[in-house]
Amino acid sequence: MTAKSLMKQATQTVTYDIEKIRDDFPILKQQVNGKPLVYLDNGATAQKPQQVIEVLDQYYREYNSNIHRGVHTLSEKATGAYEAARLKIKNFINAESIQQVILTSGTTASINLVAQSYGRSTLKQGDEIIITEMEHHSNIVPWQMLCEQTGAKLKVVPINDKGELIMEEYESLLNDRTRLVAVVHISNALGTINPVEDIIKLAHNRGIPVLLDGAQAVPHCPVDVQALDCDFYCFSGHKLFGPTGTGVLYGKKALLESMPPWQGGGDMIRTVRFDETTYNDLPYKFEAGTPDIAGVIGTGAAIDYVSAIGMDNIAHYESELLAYATEIMSAIDGLTLVGTADNKAGILSFVMKDIHPHDIGTILDQHGVAIRTGHHCAMPVMERYEIPATARASLALYNTRDDIDHLVEAINNVRKVFA
Q1: What's the pLDDT band for 70 if we cut at 50, 70, 90?
Q2: Terminal Cα-to-Cα distance of the chain (whole angstroms)
Q3: Which positions ≥6 away from 342 have C-beta within 8 Å?
Q4: At what angle do helices 401-417 and 357-366 cross, to 10 degrees?
Q5: Cβ contact 344:191 at 8 Å
Q6: Residue 69 has what pLDDT?
Q7: What is the pLDDT of residue 60?
Q8: Which whole number is the average pLDDT over 30-41?
Q9: Facing residues of 102 across strands?
Q10: Cβ contacts of residue 254 below 8 Å, gap of 6+?
Q11: Which residues have CB under 8 Å from 97's CB, separation 6+?
């Protein structure tokens, strides 16, 4: 989905009450180093609204208990809230059934599950997996491990100087040996919104399944897995204003049913004997052990929160904020934006002439501005641009133009320090 189409979808008549939204996030009220906090590290993790914090507090105060196995009141209440969160997730991404919603510890765990269950049971020597040059390490390393285990080969789609996939190269890599395509929906290092509909269609024309890493997409734009027709979709709760340690794997039911369990124990069993164990139905077949119960319930509350605002409205607001930030930062002498795709989400990676990104981040912190510096778990991206690292400001629904102005003011102070 492109930035332009997101803006067209947005309901222009709905008032986006940014002050009310900011008031929902207690952490934004503090000062850092004597300055008001400007939090621009949302690509790493997003802050939590009071509505999520209260749900976590309520769980631990009132009905902390294990799920699915107990018949007492607390267990039944916890089970009900946990499964209600699964239903919210199903509706949020428009999955066809709750059986397709596997609850994990995060995007990384979801991708590893697919690699070790689907991949190890289907791939063999000489098969190929296609990824891209802009992937997060979590969508590279699991496939490298799988290739070591099976003898399969990893193929990489290159990107151009703007940070866009070279689609002709992607098409040329698809062949009769391709067994899976795994692509990031929105790049965490560049902000590029990939043409995932086209990527999926081209793969499906050859009967090849597609996995999307949606960690950076679900907090910022509507995601409809049925409309996308992806085979797997992975994302995390903590980037969606929910707790850490929670995640989701969506999969097409036929694929999930054909896949063997990845981990054993707990809820994933139906019966256990020494001579034979039978496995549980979906989605529990892939959910071994006691999960982060409070975290999943909190993720459900986070989905309630963003749904009340409206994902279309969030996408429109962030698109306008990105346009403002791009314009004002592009005018800073000596600053170069890394990742200038025509279709972008709210990621502003940049370098400054003769100044290391870590120095930029340290000085910005003294001004209360929190950004991320480093390779952003995307070292091949840094290699592509022949740079060691970038400074990255990443936007969320509670950021403002004032935040961008503070960022620019702090960057100008960096320039003065290194003048």
Answers
A1: confident
A2: 42
A3: 2, 3, 162, 164
A4: 120
A5: yes
A6: 83
A7: 98
A8: 97
A9: 249
A10: none
A11: 90, 253
Predicted confidence (pLDDT) at residue 290 exceeds the cutoff of 90: yes
The answer on 340 and 257 residing in a single domain is no
Q: Which of the four pLDDT bands, split at 50, 70 and 90, describes residue 419?
A: confident
Counted domains in the chain? 2
Q: How many residues does the chain have?
A: 419
Residue 120's H or E segment, with its range, is: helix 120-122
Other CB atoms within 10 A of residue 349 CB: 32
Which range of residues forms the domain containing residue 329?
Answer: 3-48+310-417
pLDDT of residue 14: 53
Average pLDDT of 168-189? Answer: 98
Q: What is the 8-class DSSP label of residue 281?
A: P
Based on the domain organization, do 275 and 348 belong to the same domain? no
Q: From 243, 274, 307, give the residue that closes a domain.
A: 307
Q: Which residues contact 161 (CB under 8 A, 6 or more apart)?
A: none
Q: How far is the C-alpha of 319 from the C-alpha of 299, rounded, in Å?
A: 24
Q: Per residue in 209-223, pLDDT tens?
A: 999 999 999 999 999
pLDDT at 1 over 90: no
Q: Based on the domain organization, do 164 and 247 belong to the same domain?
A: yes
For 154-217, give the secondary structure using H, E and C. Answer: EEEECECCCCCECHHHHHHHCCCCEEEEEEECECCCCCEECCHHHHHHHHHCCCCCEEEECCCC
Q: What is the phi/psi pair of residue 391, to 5°? A: -95, 140
85 contacts: CB under 8 Å, gap ≥ 6? 296, 297, 299, 300, 301, 303
User: What is the separation of C-alpha 307 from the centre of its chain, rounded to a whole number of angstroms?
Assistant: 17
- Residue 377 catalytic? yes
Options 221, 230, 234, 377, the catalytic residue: 377
